[in-house]
Every structure is written in C-alpha cells, then in structure tokens.
Amino acid sequence: MIEPSLALYGDAFARVDRLLEELLEVTGVRYGLLVDRKGFVLSHKEALWAPRPPALDSVATLVASNAAATAALANMLGERTFSEQTHQGENGTLYVESVGDQALLTLIFDVAVPLGKVKVYARKSIVQLAAILEELKDIPPVQLDSDFSKGANALLDDLLG
After folding, report:
1. Which end of the chain offers a freer environment for a tag, N or C, measured as fewer CB atoms within 10 Å?
2. Which of 75, 129, 72, 67 is nearest to 94 (CA)?
3. Which H helix or E strand runs over 99?
C-alpha cells in the first residue's frame, strides 16, 4: 500500500494549517492544499464562503501526477524542474507551486482573484512551509510497539464485539 511521504502532525500540522488559513484570507483563494509528491493531502483549508469543495483526494492525486509529468518535460528541455504550474479556465484557476522537493502548494480560486497577488503571497508562504517540512526530516518516525497493537486490538474487540 502506498503511504504519504510525510507525516504532518502536532505543532507542525497546526503551523501549516495556520499558514494556509492566512494565505486564503489575504488572497481570496477558495481552497488551499498542501499535497505530497505521491498525491496525498497533507493539509487543506477552504474559505468560509467557498462552495462545497471538489474531491480533494482526487485533486491531490491529479496534481501530483501532473507535477511528475511536468518534471519529466522540464528534464527533456534541459531544466532541473519547473517550479510552478498555472491552469486557467473560464471561471477559475488552479495554481501549483513546489514546496522544496517534498510537497506542492495547490491553490484554487476564481478568475476575479489576481494571479499576481496569489503568486506573491504564495511564495512568501512557501518559504515558511518549506522550513516546517525541513524540520520534519529531523524527527524520527513514530514506532508503535506490540503493546500498542495489542491495546488497539482489545479496544476494537470491545467496541465491535
């Protein structure tokens, strides 16, 4: 089974969540997602006024796939990478920018929102997001021992009978 490449939890998750919320407030973006390169949603926010969001797991998978294809194109053209992608439609825009080599900041917004404003504030947020993700590299992975497994099984047995 494929698993996320990053584990975002605790204080790091709260800080990422706060950064996404601030980014939405200052730019007018509807939805903000931090997606890992495997296509997993690490964190997401939606504006209070935004309509029901699209299927975010599907968006994340497609964004990561598109980023991988774009990276292959960049490589073919002699570039190390293309750090951002913009997809503009009649009613909305999808903006994706790399957060280091680990994640993708994905923003979905209406055409009334200026793309330049989104880019300026996104780049400021990306510096902070990259610093948080860099901190996670130093944290050892959570190790669950057999006592945890036994306790979890006992709780499930009690719960489900």
Report:
1. N
2. 67
3. strand 92-99
